[in-house]
Amino acid sequence: MALENNDSNTSETFEGKYKMLVLDLDDTLLRDDYSISHRNKEMLLKAQKMGIKVVLASGRPTPAMTKYAEELKLDYFDSYLISFNGAVVTSMKTNEVLFETTLTQKEIHSLYDFSVENNVHIITYSHKGVVSETESEYIDVELNLTGIPHHKVQSFKQEVTTRAAKCILLENPEYLKKVESKLKAERTDLSVARSKPFFLEVMPQGIDKAASIDRLANMLDIKQSEVIAVGNAGNDLSMVKYAGLGIWVDNVADELRHEADFIVASNNDDGVAEVVEKFIVK
Q1: Which of 2, 35, 44, 245 to pair with 188, CA 20 to 30 A apart?
Q2: pTM higher than the cut 0.85
């Protein structure tokens, strides 16, 4: 696919302009089989050797991201993970959590009540795994992509007695759109974003990928204009709009296509490598 420019007036020279490359994982860097292509890996290692900070930013829990960080040698290049849609920032070099915020038990229980009232599944996370009362094909997707065990319980509220980084509400996409609108209208005290058509992610107020990228960039003395962010879904929108250069891979939903500066090839066609070649290496 030829690189698509969403601004026909853009005529900048990009070489040497950027210092941080932030990448969503699922459906962006990762192919549909949850692997990193040889070309993507090769170009990301090349970018890091040039001094570019490659940061992985995902809705995934931290443990479900580390193998990809290790594959890309983020520890060697002293880089970072942004997990749980921005709720946690971790140094790969030291394994130190640099930032963390969580939903309160009260907030999680209120989201459970909302899920029951609106007939959707709900999950959260504990040291025991992915916690839910129910089973569904959508919960199975989360279990498969994270590799985290399913801790199915009789009572969600009795099980969840502490804080957690986030919750996910799950149901078929068309119905979940209606639930998303209702939740956003009722709960302005929370951050709500869609990561997959059937995943509605809920985090503490003010938490999203952009907020944590900004935190990290400030810590590293990197300007907003020096950040590239690449994503594919609603929970990537904040970082794509925040970045000096915001990019979608081609498999982005139609309603989001106009929100980025450029669109590159899809997650299955080495879109991330295209970004590196066009805006960093060239």
Answers
A1: 245
A2: yes
